[in-house]
Design goal:
This protein is α+β, with helices and mostly antiparallel strands. Helices cover 49% and strands 18% of the residues.
Length: 244
């Protein structure tokens, strides 16, 4: 993030993650003696505080977003690993053309190879963390899907009135959209990082997550999601038949 001398004006403003979820409000900043902003302190909804590097802070007008550290780290590996690989290939070409001595080639190749192996080891750790996050997203999707099914059941038998049902449906549906976009985003990150570790040459990440498509009004997002057997069929008042 570029340094902004007026960054303190962001204190008290709301902060969201890449997927639109509210993280909390900016409480303060960590600033070096020379005036460089290093980190931001965020008061979360439960009253606890979290610290985030300003490298992961994105300010766009009134919108303040914290970019995922996991995704930023993966992006960095996908830039640095191919770069070192290309340098090592260029070094090998220079050696083949006898533009450098065998001794110098051996020394530099060992240096590049060591750096490459270290980066791949660190990237493997990030890959494993990404896989855990994908599993977390899958569990959240499953839980939200069950919540939506039970909401439909209680509404159908008259335990929940239309107004409460509409409010709850919107809340669950919005969260399902966000978690599905996050899961897809993490899967793209996982695939690119896996290919980099395996030695493929890939470009940089797209830092912005894919924007979710707006579903039709009163359309249940969970219809295409997998649920354990046996299947449940829910008949919804004024909406139609929804098969799960």
């Amino acid at each position: 993030m570029s340094q902004n001398p007026n960054l303190f004006s962001s204190v008290g403003k709301q902060v969201k993650d890449e997927y639109g979820r509210i993280i909390g409000k900016i409480a303060s900043f960590q600033v070096t003696p020379s005036g460089i902003f290093e980190a931001v302190f965020v008061e979360q909804g439960d009253g606890k505080f979290s610290k985030h590097s300003t490298e992961h802070l994105k300010i766009d007008g009134a919108e303040i977003t914290i970019i995922s550290k996991l995704k930023s780290d993966a992006c960095a590996f996908c830039d640095h690993i191919p770069l070192i690989w290309r340098k090592d290939q260029a070094l090998e070409e220079l050696s083949r053309k006898k533009k450098i001595s065998p001794e110098l080639y051996s020394e530099l190749h060992t240096s590049f190879d060591g750096a490459l192996n270290q980066l791949k080891t660190e990237a493997q750790t990030v890959l494993e963390q990404t896989e855990k996050e994908i599993s977390r997203c899958a569990e959240e999707i499953k839980s939200l899907t069950y919540a939506l099914v039970h909401l439909e059941i209680e509404h159908e038998i008259g335990k929940i009135d239309d107004q409460a049902y509409g409010t709850a449906f919107t809340i669950i549906q919005d969260n399902l959209k966000r978690i599905n976009v996050e899961k897809s985003d993490l899967e793209v990150t996982k695939n690119k990082l896996s290919n980099i570790i395996l030695g493929d040459k890939l470009g940089s990440f797209d830092k912005a997550p894919t924007k979710p498509k707006e579903p039709a009004k009163n359309t249940a997002v969970y219809s295409a999601l997998e649920l354990p057997e046996p299947p449940v069929v829910v008949y919804v008042k004024e909406i139609g038949k929804v098969g799960i």
